[in-house]
Design brief:
By secondary structure, the chain is mainly beta. The protein has strands spanning 2-10, 13-14, 17-18, 21-40, 46-52, 61-63, 67-74, 81-87, 91-96, 101-104, 127-133, 139-148.
Length: 151
């Protein structure tokens, strides 16, 4: 087992005043890492990760109950992509501009997508997959998932 150390750093000085910060998090008991760089074909949706009840539930599945950290990074220097975080019955989408990342914690009971502007703060759902559509440009995406010992 290992400990994953995640550090987010913002470094900016405006008018001689430092406004950046550093946030560090340690995640213990990591035993599996899923790291993949995927070339996403222009105008096609590419599934970059699949989650399930067990690792043998689907080809290349990640056990949703053991995931502790997820990072998706758009490696392209100039083109954005749309990232879909797909649950069992709903999804949410975000745009990742060039060289931006989207970071998530555990994949179980993580998301709730709603069609209005009044959050219900209801029951969270598991992630079923992560999908990327790069629009009219082929781009490279990196996905990094760290998991602890399966329950």
């Amino acid at each position: 087992m290992a400990t994953l150390k995640v550090t987010h750093t913002e470094d900016i000085t405006i008018n001689g005043q430092q406004h950046g910060s550093v946030s560090e998090k340690s995640i213990a008991d990591i035993v599996d890492v899923y790291k993949r760089t995927v070339t996403c074909t222009a105008s096609q949706t590419t599934t970059i990760a699949v989650f399930g009840d067990t690792v043998h539930s689907a080809a290349c599945a990640v056990d949703e109950d053991s995931v502790k950290y997820i990072r998706i990074t758009n490696l392209d220097a100039s083109n954005s992509v749309e990232l879909a975080v797909v649950g069992d019955a709903t999804l949410y989408q975000v745009t990742l501009a060039a060289e931006e990342s989207h970071v998530l914690g555990a994949s179980a009971a993580l998301m709730l997508a709603e069609a209005d502007t009044s959050p219900s703060f209801g029951t969270m759902a598991d992630i079923a997959s992560l999908q990327v559509n790069p629009g009219s440009n082929a781009v490279k995406i990196e996905v990094f998932i760290a998991s602890a010992t399966p329950a």
